[in-house]
Structures are given as C-alpha cells and as structure tokens.
Amino acid sequence: MKQVRIIGTGQLNGPISVNKTILLEDNIANRLQGNDEAKLALLAVHFPGVKFNPRQISFTISQYREPKRKTIKAKQKVKKEKKQLSFGTIISFILLLPFKLVWWVLKFLWSRR
Q1: 17 within a domain of the structure (yes/no)
Q2: Which of 10, 33, 36, 103 could form an SS bridge with 50, CB 3.0 to 4.6 Å?
C-alpha cells in the first residue's frame, strides 16, 4: 500500500483548494507518476465536477506505515485490606453520627429551595 497526498487547486464556481491523503495499491500509485490522464481520472472520482489542470496538482507518493497500536494491559485488582473494627472506630462513629445526620438534613432542605 502506498500513501498518496494530493495538494493543489481546482475550479468549480470559484477556486477549490485540495489537500487530501488517500491509500492506493502499489500498481495504481505507480501509474500516477507522469501520467496526466491517470491523475485526472483519480481526481474525477474524489472530486466530482471539479475541473483540474494536472500541472497545478501535486501528487506525493510515499510508503504507507500502519500506526502502532497501543496494547492495553489488563488492570490488576488491588486487594485492599479491611480495617479491623476497634473500640476507637466504634466510638468515633457514634460521636460523629449526629453531625452526619444534621448535614444530610440540611443538604436535603437546601436542595428543595
């Protein structure tokens, strides 16, 4: 496969700028070199109705390189150790529970306004 970049101008109710990159088979891309009829046929397919002067169009032919695909690694699950239930965590839960309840009630009332 070859990558063909077409740059130039054409005419259709005013100037049309052309800047397009297409992929072609090797034998078709090789026919474009020095063959104005092949260039005009290719342009007629990609730009219907546009009149071109083959001398005002530039064809740059290069070898196509497929972009490298990123490999996605499976995410490893991180095992979290459960915290031990201690006397301090129970006391802090009991002491902070009323404040949490008041906060939830205030948020609920505030969102209703």
Answers
A1: yes
A2: 10
